[in-house]
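call fold(seq) -> tokens
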Amino acid sequence: MFPSSSRTSLLSPWSSMEQSDSEALDISTKVQLHGVLWKRPFGRPSAKWSRRFFIIKDSFLLYYAESEKRNFETNSYFNIHPKGVVPLGGCVVAPSPNAGMPFAIVVNLEDFTGAIVLAADSEDEQVQWMEMLQDSGKVTWRNAQLGEAMIESLEAQGLQLAKEKQEYLDKLMEETEELSHQRAQREELQRLNLVLEEEKLKFEEVVMELKAEQEHIKHVCGSDLDGTARSLRGVEREKEELSRLTTALQNSIQELSQEKQRTLELLGVKEQEEKPTETAEETRDSEDGGDGGDGEDGGDGGDGGDGGDGGDGGDGGDGGDGGDGEDGGDGGDEEDGGDGEDGGDGGDGGDGGDGEDGGDGGDGGDGEDGGDVELLKDLQHIEEEMKVLLKEKQQAEEKLKDNEQMAKVLQEEREFYWSQAQTLQESLSQLSVDKNQTEAELRAEMESRLELEQRLKEAEEALQELEKGLSSLERSAESEEQMRGNVTQLRRFFEECICAAEIEAKLPSIMKNAVYLHKAAARRIKSCRIQRRASRRHWCKSTRAGPPQATLTSVNINPRCALVAVKHSKSFAVTGADERSMEELRETARRLTSDSSFRESVYKIMARKDAAGKKEN
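ret:
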């Protein structure tokens, strides 16, 4: 196979000849060029020129007599018996201005001793024949062998390149699809970024509102707490004053009680002193009276009086009328000191002189009754003051209870405000933590997205370079090395996708093993204990059954004991089925890399893994 330029140069003269001669030759007789040229004899020097009909067929120059031109144009095929045949393989063609003809052509061959000299009729024909002779000289046996080998090599390279091109085109299609999905994912990430930015702004607004509310609550609660504290201090002061007042009232009540006790004791002493006096007066009256009955009446009058007035009545009874003494006694029944005047009046009933004496006795009785009245008034005044003090004490206690209840309410209100402030502070702290966590997640998401975009950009660049290398016809060692690097990079990218897919596939079993690991360990321990007990029981039975040698033999060959010794628990974290299906899992992961949704999930997992790794760092 020749290059396109060579084919064009080979066919263009023939096309020009067809256009010039207006002939359509048969494919079996098609020649590269034909025409009449001047020829000088070959092999010997001569100045004679003769016209001959020349034909260039492949790599041979055939010449005939000039008359053969008409036969060739008529029959459209060349004669196989030319006058001469000149092989043109490896010839050197050059113009010769000194050959005796204006448009001479010199053809030099390695296998010929002399030169072949031809001449054309015009300059255009000279150039045309020189080009065709030069092109025909390239067709040699060596070139044919090299061309065949080159053709085979080029065909093999073409097949290999076609295969590689198809593979690269398949990969290119996959990567194009992948890039489209990645672009969609990037757009989705941008949308999520906008959503996260909006959420961040909302969080900031909420935090600002909470801060403003906290400041307002601090201001309001601060004023309320200050007022509550002042109220509590006022209540405490009132409580202390009421406590002091209660103590003073208690002391006053105790003093009044003591004074009342002393007054009562003094009254009891006076009564005891008056009783002997009354007894003596009654005795005197009974001795002085003429009428025993009247004396008794006078005694009655003395009893009715207040300690001595009756005695005076008895004296009036001496006038002759004991009844008046009774009246005097009746007048003395009053506990008041002024009633002694009635005793005087009784005395007046009997005898005027005696009545005066009775009046005098009544005056003596008024002095004693005045002291008793004062004591009674003091006692009554003390009791009234005690009642007033008890009432004030009760009011103070009630007010103290009210103050304690108010202090309790104020304390509860203070605790409520404090708890509200603490709750708001905790809410603000939690919101700050959530905000920081959201910002950290956003930063990690942005970093992972930037890293993913960088990797996608590198993959796109690798694909573009690979596409350029595949589309270019010229190959070099540098381009081959660059293509290998691009393929290696894409392979690494797909291997990372496969690893992420394997991790994603193993996540359920990992979580299951993490949940049931302690149960499996407990079952393993229990099975080991059961095996140990079974071995011990079997050993004891074998020991009781025979001698030590027989026991040893039985232990060594007993299948039950061997089974107990070999038997183990199968509660492991990774089962044999998981190990057997690992290759199938890898194959499935490789097969699923072409799935768009699966790749999207893989990229999400990789992004989460990168974000988690950065958080741990």
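Residues 1-28, 288-368, 547-575 have pLDDT under 50 and may be disordered.
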